[in-house]
Design goal:
Layout lengths: L8 E5 L3 H12 L3 E5 L3 H20 L5 H10 E4 L10 E4 L5 H12 L7 E4 L6 H4 L9 E6 L8 E6 L5 H13 L3 E4 L8 H17 L5 H11 L6 H8 L1 H14 L10 H9 L4
Parallel strand pairs: 1-2, 1-4, 2-3, 4-5, 5-6, 7-8
Antiparallel strand pairs: 6-7
Length: about 280
């Protein structure tokens, strides 16, 4: 497999906030992007949301009308995965569920070219496990962006056990070309950032559950005294408990229920109630 992409065409699977943000990053770097979602309404909302960002950037004088027109042409809706026949990169950005991600990749495996790189934006699941059903697992890699993708500079690049070195090289070069900071991480639970972040959330939740302080006070202490830009509870609200709790639970299970990563019952109750942040 060549260490370079054979064209600058990509498909992003999943038109939510993360998928739309990734599509925006690629388009603004000169790529043509197909945005796909299983739900047509979600897909159309995702396209409209990204184009709405460009409208606001024109109003603020950040980009020109000509740039907006070019970006709008580079971003298209894909209503079936079969439209990915001529892309050199697919980035999957759906919800954190191993079976769902495997299903996407096994379907794409029979659609895309043999030299197309298949990337997952998983934040905690094993890249090697996701690649297990793919005929050419050497082309599967993790590309983990952070929300909001257009603003957050870091991208974790995670090779699975079978990922070819040239695939990693191609992704490192592409991430840099997109104006991001790429860090190659091992395929371990939570990779770098989400493993480090678990105690940040977990200890804050334990302090709250032990009635040491309320949420607002904990956030205040960590921002005003600790120097963090956001407190743990504000950050959990921004990320959403449906994402944050699932990542915590996944890391905990993958570390064989290590008590250091034990999820919080308080957060689980918020998730069960549908109070996502």
């Amino acid at each position: 497999m060549s260490p370079r992409f054979f064209n600058q065409k990509a498909m992003v699977v999943g038109a939510g906030a993360m998928g739309g943000g990734i599509a925006q990053v690629l388009v603004e770097s000169g790529w043509e992007v197909l945005l796909y979602d299983t739900q047509d309404a979600s897909l159309e909302n995702g396209i409209a949301r990204v184009r709405g960002v460009w409208d606001k950037l024109v109003e603020k004088g950040k980009i020109s009308d000509a740039q907006r027109s070019a970006f709008n042409k580079q971003l298209s809706a894909a209503y079936v995965l079969r439209e990915a026949t001529d892309v050199s990169l697919v980035i999957e950005a759906i919800y954190e569920n191993l079976d769902a991600k495997r299903s996407v990749f096994t379907t794409l495996d029979d659609v895309v070219r043999e030299d197309c790189i298949l990337a997952t934006n998983t934040s905690s699941l094993s890249v090697s496990s996701i690649a297990a059903g793919v005929k050419r697992a050497e082309r599967v890699v993790g590309l983990h962006f952070f929300n909001p993708a257009p603003l957050m500079p870091l991208v974790e690049i995670i090779p699975g056990i079978a990922t070819a070195p040239e695939v990693v090289e191609a992704c490192v070069a592409a991430v840099a070309a997109w104006g991001k900071v790429g860090v190659v991480a091992k395929d371990t639970p939570g990779f770098l950032v989400n493993r480090i972040a678990r105690p940040f959330y977990g200890e804050a939740l334990h302090l709250f559950e032990e009635q040491m302080a309320d949420m607002a006070t904990i956030d205040w202490a960590l921002t005003e005294l600790g120097g963090f830009r956001m407190g743990p509870f504000a950050l959990m609200d921004l990320i959403g408990h449906d994402v944050n709790y699932v990542v915590t639970e996944t890391v905990w299970k993958q570390f064989y229920y290590d008590p250091r990563f034990r999820p919080s019952l308080s957060q689980k109750r918020l998730l069960d109630a549908g109070w996502l942040g």
